[in-house]
Structures are given as C-alpha cells and as structure tokens.
Design brief:
By secondary structure, the chain is α/β, with parallel strands linked by helices. The chain has four domains: 4-75, GIY-YIG endonuclease (3-Layer(aba) Sandwich), CATH 3.40.1440; 141-319, P-loop containing nucleotide triphosphate hydrolases (Rossmann fold), CATH 3.40.50.300; 331-374 and 431-571, 3-Layer(aba) Sandwich (Rossmann fold), CATH 3.40.50.300; 583-672, Alpha-Beta Plaits (2-Layer Sandwich), CATH 3.30.70.260. The chain contains 18 helices and 29 strands. The protein is globular, with a radius of gyration of 27 Å. It starts with a strand and ends in a 5-residue tail after the last strand. The structure holds adenosine-5'-triphosphate (ATP) and zinc ion. Adenosine-5'-triphosphate is lined by residues 137-140, 143, 163, 165-171, 299, 323-324, 488, 490, 526, 530.
Length: 677
C-alpha cells in the first residue's frame, strides 16, 4: 500500500471527514482506527482514520499529505468507532467532535514523546493475573441472587438493581465482577460512578478485593500524564476494571464484558455542554452493541429505567433490606415549620435531636442544597437587592471572604458598606446558605466538631477526600453540606439527618423537579442508620423541615415508598404526554438581546413547520429560558417533541442540516433528551 487515501475525522465543528494522501513507508501501514497527524489550516492536528480508500473525490492538487501515523498505538477498535459514530448521529454532532475528545490530550500532540513514554511504562508494569478476589463477605440471599444474575448473564442483558439505601449494592457489583473476571480470562469491566469524590471509596474497595487485577480510573481531575496512562491501560486491555465518571463511557475497551452504572438516577451522568450525552443511555447502547450485560443500580431509579423495568425490558433485581444485620431504614419525620418556627434556620425539634446525638457521641448530618452565607443581601430601607449585573440571578453573600459572588458567571465584588441606591448602612442577608448554618451551629454547640462540605469548602484538589475521611474516621460531630454529601457515602456513625429547606423545589416549573427532589431526599435520608444500632444508642431518624407536611412527596418519603411514588409520577407523565412516553429535543439560542435569540428560534421553527405534521412532530413556541440572562447574554429555547424516537431522530437530522445552512450569527445548540426544561 504505497499510496492510499486516509479519511480522517478531526475535532472541528464542520460536519465532514477529511481526505489525506498517504505515501509513507510500508512498515507503517495505516489501519482504520489509527491516529494520524495531518496539516489542517495553519496547524498540525491529530485525527482518527475512519476509512482508507484508493481514490478521493478531492482534486489531486488540493490533497495534502498526512504527516505521520501513530502505528505504535493499536488502532481504536471498530466497536469503539461505532460507539462514537452512534453518539455523533444521535446527538447530532460531527463525528470528530465526539471521537477526539474521547482520546487523551497527550495523544493529540504533534510529538509522540508522551505516548512512547507511557507505552514503555505500561510494558514494564507487571500485573498479577490472579482474578481470585480476597475477603469477600458472605452475601445475603437477595444479594447472592442479584450477583449471580449479573455474573451469569449472557448476551445483551440490561438489569436494574433496585436496592434500598445501604442494601449492599456495591458488594453485589464486586461479586458479580469477580464472576465475570474468573470466567473471561481477558475480559474487562467498566464501572461508572456519578462523582469523582465517590471514586476513592470504591477504588480502595476494588483494589483491596482484586489485588491481582489492574484497575484504571478515568475522571476529569486526573492530570494529563495520568489520564494517558490509565486510558492506555484500558485501550491495551491491560486494565481489567475501569472505574470512572461519565466520560469513561467513551473509553476504548476492546474486551468489555460488563458495564455497571452505580446510582444510575444521578443527574451528573448527563453532560451539560458540548456533546450533551447521557452516559447511562450510551452505556445501554454500548452493551446492546457488544451483546453484554449492563447493570443499572439505584435505590431511587430514574423514571426512564423504572419504566423499562416495569415493562420487562430491563430485568429487575431487588434488594429489599439493609445489608448490615440490625441496620434499619431511619424513621422519617416531618417537622411543621408553621408550628415549630425555625430560629437561625433550625427548628426546636431538630436542635434537640442534634443535642441528643452530641450527648451520645453520634454523628449528625444537615443537608441544605445552597452554598454561600446567604443567597442575597438587601436594603430594608429602599428595597435594593444584590442582583448580578450580568445575570438574572442574585449575587450570593460569601461572608468569610467579604465578597458577593454570582454562582452563574462568577462575578465578584466586595460587600458594599452601604446601600448603592440610598446609602443606608444597614444591609441585611436574606435567607440561608450552608456557611450561615455552620456559623449558627458553632454558636449553639461551641464544643461540637462541625464540618461543612460543599463546592466552596472543597475547592483545593484532594480536599473533598480529606473532608470525607475526617467524617469516616469519626472526627466530626455535625456535618453540614450540599448535594455533595447526599450520595453514595457509607457514613457508619450517622444516626440523624436534618433536611433544611426542601420546599422550594416542590413548586418548580420543571416536571422533573419532583422526581429529582424525591431521589435526593431518599438518598440523603439513606445516609443514616447504616450500621447496627449501638447498645443504648439512638434509633436513626431523619427530620424534614417543611411548610407543607401534607404534600404527597413527603408522605411517600415517610413511608420509604419509592415504588408507589414512582408509579404515581409515571401515571402523571403518561397522562400529560411527557417522557418517558414522549421524546424531546431542545434547541437553545443565545444573543446579546432576547429578541435576537427568539427571532432565531422562530426562524428555525418556520423552516420546518410544513414538514412536521406528517411525521407526528410537535414544535413548540420559542420561550425565554427561566434563567434568561447569564453573563450578558439572553437565552431562549424551543422544545420539539414526538411520541416516536425514530421520527424525532429523522426530523432532527434534516433540521440540523437546514439550520447549519442558515449560517446565523446567533449562537445555538441542540440537546437531545434534555433533562432541564
Ligand atoms: N452481605 C453483607 N454482610 C454484611 N455487611 C454488608 C454486606 N453487604 C454489604 N454490607 C455492608 O453494608 C453497607 C452498605 O453497603 P453499600 O454502601 O454497598 O450500600 P448501597 O446499596 O450502595 O447503598 P446506597 O444506595 O445508600 O449507596 C456497607 O458498609 C457494606 O460493607
Ligand atoms: Zn452573574
């Protein structure tokens, strides 16, 4: 093959692949899936060879030569290219924009120093080949059944592992993994978790259990060098377990035999910018393509997965009880804030419960999904409030840093000494964030060890891990935190959870808000009572401060009744014609003025209006987004719906082609299966 044409996907917004001539040495024979260095405009970039042919439609004199092919790296397997191809088509993005970001940056450099070094390093890494795990606890009957079902599944087998909080789902995954590793001498397993701060816990578990097996981890906070090494270990089939966050779904895993998605309901499986993919959905597709089992685990499954389990499309595996003997689900109690008026954000009843835990040396957790000191400051004399100048949002008070900060555009300013409009010096914080609750707690319980965990307190790399370690060691009496503390953690000494301000989400316009709120509250409640009740210790309880104790969502929470709640929500969705009974895509536009954004969406709507009726597609009216302005741009959205996914896909394909031809200066993007409406 002295002369050939390489068809190459490049990371550009252009919907095209590019032809290059190859006349390199015989020894460097390129293959589909190889990375290649090519000139592109004034730069040299790395792309992926997606096809090789003898001729090109590009005129001979316009064809450029590919500069190098990275033959030292095994080509990306066809199944990986198919995955990237599917994601590109489904989410309506160019192939290169999907495929290349899935490859570590160090592989996309014009030199191969980093690559060669990583290959050498991995070649020297000796790993045991002993998949026999150590120290596996004895499973209870339900766990054993689930582990056997997963470990023994053949072909495409989607399963929902529905197990109450603390039911030992992790143990089920580990033992199912052990079965697969033992049966498949080269097999690889992909385990996805929603957040980086959950990986160290599980990583430690996996390493301890499978000392003879190479584990690779993939998440966004790895340094480039490490990412390269881990990615390569997966790509070369050396790493037999790959643990990662959503981006790991795009890892190259030539011997993939099982996919596990822990906390599958978690919103962080959805990427919210660029390629707006759902790692969970791609995982199910990948399992289908490879004809392998995939297990989705949760105590509060997403309605999509629940719906599939109810209809029999997914096999449901159930764990009804907590794994640790005598550990029971906490008693959930509603505290009516109309009767027990909170002082400093906390009711008498919750304060008393906190005091009791302190006396007994047990841990408590307060959950408030709002960071900062106060969400806004205001002037009581003239009504001024701390609006962000660039966003439809308030500037949040961060008292310790003497700053107001917008959580959307990061604008910062010093706390004004007096009101900018009337000069009044008495500016008041309104409402409460985690910092303010922390301050109050220190005042009420001066002897207690109090720790706050939120995005502000854990900015420094590694600090989240340190904080969680402190809690696990038992060096914290009261933990206060945002959703960061709600998920997955196995806090062994916790017997009280206080939920501070959940009501606002009850009245959101987003139909998914109640699903999300319920899952979040069930999850945070599930952090309590995970070990046997200590002799003379308190029974674990969850106190929910609310003004709406009659609300059915809270009723279901008190009864720990996910089934009925999910059933009712699904019935509502069915009646209203909403997902999962309907498929959606959201076109968003942003411009310095709202009218421009709306105008673009209107034009986008008009260009397809006539074609939609026959296909059963509904194009709604463009509307401003609920948070209209962010960083000086106004944002609007247009929702497209159809009861048929293929019909919607066909429509989107045609529509996107027309929109690209419009060459509008308005910035726009499409999200398929949007989660925030
Ligand atoms: N068979 C078992 N015997 C004894 N303890 C067990 C068993 N299986 C699991 N455990 C323990 O039960 C606790 C809870 O397990 P795990 O964290 O896996 O629960 P989970 O189902 O993932 O809960 P969540 O949904 O709340 O994250 C852990 O401390 C674990 O070590
Ligand atoms: Zn702002």
């Amino acid at each position: 093959m002295p002369h050939c044409i390489l068809r190459i996907a490049l990371d550009t917004p252009l919907h095209a692949v590019f032809d290059y001539r190859w006349s390199g040495a015989e020894a460097e024979r390129p293959q589909v899936g190889h990375l290649a260095l090519v000139p592109f405009g004034t730069r040299e970039v790395v792309g992926i060879i997606v096809a090789i042919s003898e001729a090109s439609e590009v005129a001979e004199e316009k064809l450029k030569d590919a500069l190098a092919v990275r033959t030292q790296l095994a080509p990306l397997p066809a199944q990986w290219l198919a995955l990237a191809g599917f994601a590109a088509e489904y989410y309506q993005r160019p192939l290169g924009e999907v495929a290349l970001p899935g490859v570590p940056k160090n592989l996309r450099l014009s030199t191969t120093v980093a690559l060669d070094r990583a290959i050498k390093k991995l070649a020297k890494t000796t790993i045991g080949h002993d998949p026999v795990p150590v120290g596996m606890p004895v499973l209870n009957a339900e766990q054993q059944q689930a582990a056997d079902a997963i470990g023994g599944a053949e072909g495409f087998a989607p399963m929902l592992l529905y197990g109450v909080t603390g039911s030992g789902k992790t143990e089920v995954y580990l033992q199912a993994c052990a079965q697969v590793l033992a049966r498949e001498p080269d097999g690889q397993i992909l385990v996805l978790v929603p957040e980086i701060n959950l990986t160290p816990q599980l990583e430690g578990n996996i390493r301890a259990r499978f000392p003879g097996v190479m584990l690779a981890t993939l998440h966004s906070s790895l340094a480039e060098g490490e990412r390269m090494l881990h990615w390569l270990a997966a790509h070369q089939g050396q790493a037999r377990i790959v643990l990662g966050t959503r981006l790991a779904i795009l890892a190259s895993l030539p011997q993939l035999k099982l996919i596990v998605i822990d906390e599958e309901h978690d919103p962080s499986y959805k990427q919210q910018e660029g390629l707006r993919y759902s790692a969970r959905d791609l995982a199910v597709w990948r399992a289908w393509q490879l004809k392998i089992p995939v297990v989705l685990g949760s105590a509060t499954p997403s309605l999509e997965s629940w719906h599939h389990a109810q209809s029999g499309r997914y096999r449901k595996l159930e764990l009804r009880e907590r794994a640790v003997k005598q550990a029971v689900l906490p008693a959930v109690k509603l505290v009516n804030m109309e009767h027990d008026k909170p002082d400093g954000g906390v009711t008498m009843q919750l304060k008393a419960a906190l005091r009791q835990r302190l006396e007994r040396g047990e841990q408590s957790l307060l959950f408030l999904n709002r960071r900062g000191y106060a969400p806004v400051i205001c002037c009581e004399a003239c009504g001024w409030v701390s609006d962000c100048q660039r966003c439809t949002a308030f500037m949040v008070l961060h008292k310790g840093e003497f700053k107001l900060r917008c959580h959307h555009c990061s604008l910062e300013m010093r706390i004004p000494r007096h009101c900018p409009t009337c000069g009044n010096v008495d500016l008041q914080p309104l409402g409460r964030g985690t910092q303010r609750i922390e301050e109050n707690l220190r005042e009420w319980f001066p002897a207690a060890r109090i720790l706050r965990i939120d995005a502000d307190s854990t900015r420094r790399k590694g600090s989240a891990q340190e904080a969680f370690d402190t809690v696990h060691r038992g060096d914290v009496d009261i933990l206060i935190g945002t959703q960061m503390v709600a998920k997955g953690h196995d806090f062994k000494k916790l017997t009280l959870v206080g939920i501070l301000n959940p009501d606002t989400a009850l009245f959101s316009q987003d139909y998914r808000a109640s699903e999300r709120l319920f899952a979040q509250l069930m999850q945070v409640a599930g952090r309590a009572g995970r070990t046997a009740q200590a002799e003379g210790g308190s029974a674990s309880e969850v106190l929910v401060q609310t003004r709406y104790p009659e609300h059915p969502l809270y009723g279901a929470l008190v009864r720990h009744d996910y089934d009925r709640f999910a059933g009712a929500l699904l019935a509502e969705r069915g009646q209203a014609g909403l997902p999962p009974y309907l498929y959606q895509a959201m076109l968003r536009a942003e411009a310095p003025e709202l009218a421009k954004a709306i105008g673009f969406l209107q034009a986008a709507r008009d260009c397809m209006q006539a074609d939609t009726i026959a296909e059963g597609i509904t194009i709604n009216e463009p509307i401003p987004m609920s948070m209209t302005r962010v960083y000086n741009v106004d944002r609007a959205q247009l929702l497209v719906e159809s009861p048929s996914r293929p019909a919607l896909q066909a429509f989107l394909k045609e529509w996107m082609a027309r929109l690209r031809d419009m060459k509008s200066r308005v910035k726009w993007s499409l999200e398929v299966d949007p989660v925030d409406i």
